[in-house]
Amino acid sequence: MNTYYAANLLIFAGVDVIACLALNLQFGVSGIVNFSFIIFQAAGAYAAAILSMPPDTSPDYSFQIYFGGYQLPFPMPWIGGAVAGAVLSIPVGLVVLRRLRTDYQAIALLVTSIIANTVINNARPWLNGAAGLALVPQPLQDQVDTGSDSYQYLYIGLTAVCVAIVWFVAARIVNSPFGRSLRAMRDHEVAATAIGKNPVAMKMTIFIVGGAIAGLSGAILVGFLQVWAPSTWLYPETIILFAAVIVGGRGNNVGAMLGALLVPVGFEEVTRLLTRMNIGPPNLIPALEWVLIGLFILGFLWFRPEGVRPEPRRVYEGAADA
Amino acid sequence: VNLYVAAFGFGLVSTSVIAIAAVGFTMQFGITNMINLAYGEVMIASAYVAYYIDRAGASIWLAMIGGAIFGAIFSFLINRFIYAPFQRRGTGPLGMVIVSLAVSLMISNLMLPIVGYFSVSYRERFSNLMRFGPIALTVNQIAIIFLAVAVMLAIHGLLRYTRLGKAMRATAANPTLARNCGIPTQRVVDMVWLITGALCGLAGVVAALDSDSFTISSGAGFLITALAAAVLGGAGQPYGAMLGAVVIGMVTELSAAAWAPDYKEVVAFAILVLVMVLRPQGLLAKRGALAAAG
Questions:
Q1: A226 backbone dihedrals φ, ψ, rounded to 5°
Q2: Which residues of A touch B263 (CB under 8 A)?
Q3: Helix (H, G, I), strand (E, B) or coil at A228
Q4: In whole angstroms, how large is the CA radius of gyration of chain A?
Q5: Concatenated DSSP letters for A74-104?
Q6: Which residues pair with A228 in a beta bridge?
Q7: Which residues on neighbouring strands pair with residue B138, listed in sequence order?
Q8: C-beta separation of B17 from B144 below 8 A
Q9: Which of B63, B77, B237, B273 could staple B50 via S-S, CB 3.0–4.6 A?
Q10: Mind listing the pLDDT tens digit for each residue in A205-244?
């Protein structure tokens, strides 16, 4: 197993863990069915890309069209990615979160995700349309040789630091009084409103926090992949993340992390393994893998719908025994 | 002006294709509470069934019937053996969306080794052009328009004037109450899957015929327009879906004439966003899904 392979695996794992933690805050803890989650990751990736790339007039980049191109040094693109995710959450949240019923919210968000993808796909002047952005600079590439093993370790380390920060933030939110209010809203919105909580404000807050974390995950991903195109953020990606959170155990950060490792990362590995076995006609094996993924999701929802690590039942001192 | 009149003609065709798909999709949601993301895959599977019938030498209209029957049976089986057991087990609406996505992944990937990646088309994709002033449509396109009108009238008649339609509306409004009133909701739901499945299959063949050639990946696009029309009109409302189809079908073609064809979907979706902001429950939504039709 070479270093690049290990780095690939660990960085994807880190990105998926971060994304699942964010989705768990929105969906698991607060009950917002954010079917457009992937557009916030995409916003972060695009923002990080245009913040780190040179303008599209520079010689090596003239084959693509995009706005911006600010060549900012390393931490800025990642911070910018998080900010972009948060900023995009505001208009989407204002449109969708205010008055819609939950199931209707889910469809509206799904449609939003598709609209965003269609717009970016068709509008070439902003972000190079369907072809997407390529040659996105890697973080610190002017200081460390990106071809070396040590750069791979460095990138793994940077990802790990981000995972730790996001984990800390998510744990703080879940265990804080605000997290308690969020769970109350999820379990019984009318009751939460009756004791003076403002569900719309709480949903907006967690939508923006989740959007920022999703943006960060996109920034990390684009720095590693160096390319980003509309075909990398189609709506089924969101559903895979939902499957991960459900499989892991919604409402539980440990569960979200386990789900991220089991579903997206586990699948990548199964894919690689089966492709290497090289049996049957060329289309057959990748196709069958997706069938297996489908069966796996169905099996989980059937046999263990609460997930691997269900949300712990919280008992507070002084609460009457129920 | 002639350009716009011509675009209006194409708009009618798009509207017809979208309407058949969207009405089926929205009825599934309205009556069985199921956001069936496998709808697009069932559409494309039916289109392929029709393709094989067509290649075997039968006419496209026979193939269309074959596609509709396949769609009906396939949807019925999916519900019987996958969706209904999950719903009985108490899987929530959101879990069901994930289930339907898993089903759609499985359908498309089980089909892939059979049908391959290449795009195919029906033998009858070219037909004679007919002119009505500035509007020029092929015979196929005119047939699609008439077919869609017939289907819409049939759905209207079904919901409005038949016992089954009444039972469907009652089941949509309150399943428990409907059961207590002696409506066999199980059988009603089975009928809904057969009918909407037939619409889905028919829509698949019609969409495939209208778009000249199709591949296995066309299913996603079919789903998206059906979904957009259904949401625009108010999810779960058959009449809303018809209206949504008119808006989306007309706007895409007229804006393609007025502006650039590249942006036609964007314009349709922009209208969708506008409706979501101004009238979040959809154009025709009333209290409760499928509330008193008409």
A1: 70, 5
A2: 122-123
A3: strand
A4: 20
A5: THHHHHHHHHHHHHHHHHHHHHHTTT--HHH
A6: A133
A7: B129
A8: yes
A9: B63
A10: 999 999 999 999 999 999 999 999 998 888 878 888 888 8
Q: Give burial (CB, 10 Å; 0-12/13-18/19+) of A312.
A: exposed
Confidence of residue A268 (pLDDT cuts 50, 70, 90): low
Rounded to two decimals, the pTM is 0.84
Tell whether A103 lies on the interface with B, counting CB pairs under 8 A. Answer: yes
Report yes or no: A273 and A254 within 8 Å, Cβ to Cβ: no
Query: Please, are residues B55 and B169 in contact by the beta-carbon 8 Å criterion?
Result: no
Chain B interface includes A290 (CB < 8 A): yes
Instruction: Identify how many contiguous H helices and E strands chain A contains and give both numbers.
Output: 13, 0
For residue B281, list chain A residues with Cβ-Cβ distance below 8 A: 100, 104
Amino acid type, B232: L
Q: Cα Rg for chain B, rounded, in angstroms?
A: 19
Work out the pLDDT band at B4, boundaries 50, 70, 90.
confident
Between chains, do A99 and B280 touch, taking CB under 8 Å as contact? Answer: yes
ipTM of the complex: 0.80
Q: What is the mean pLDDT of residues B173-198?
A: 92
Q: Dihedral sign, CA of B202, B203, B208, B209? A: positive
Contact check, Cβ <8 Å, A103/B224: no
Instruction: Say if CB B105 and CB A290 are below 8 A apart.
Output: yes
Q: Are A107 and B227 within 8 A, CB to CB?
A: yes
Residues 6+ positions from A92 with CB-CB distance below 8 Å? A36, A39, A109, A112, A207
Dist CA A126 CA B13 (whole Å):
32
- Per the listing, tokens 């916003």 go with A43
Query: Which tens digit of pLDDT belongs to each residue from B82-95?
Result: 999 999 988 888 78
DSSP secondary structure string, chain B?
-HHHHHHHHHHHHHHHHHHHHHHHHHHHHHHH----TTHHHHHHHHHHHHHHHHHTT--HHHHHHHHHHHHHHHHHHHIIIIIHHHHHTT--HHHHHHHHHHHHHHHHHHHHHHH-SS-EE-GGG---EEEETTEEEEHHHHHHHHHHHHHHHHHHHHHHHSHHHHHHHHHHH-HHHHHHTT--HHHHHHHHHHHHHHHHHHHHHHHHHHTSEE-TTHHHHHHHHHHHHHHHH-TT-HHHHHHHHHHHHHHHHHHHHHS-GGGHHHHHHHHHHHHHHH-TT-SS--SSTT-S--
CA distance B23 to A322: 47
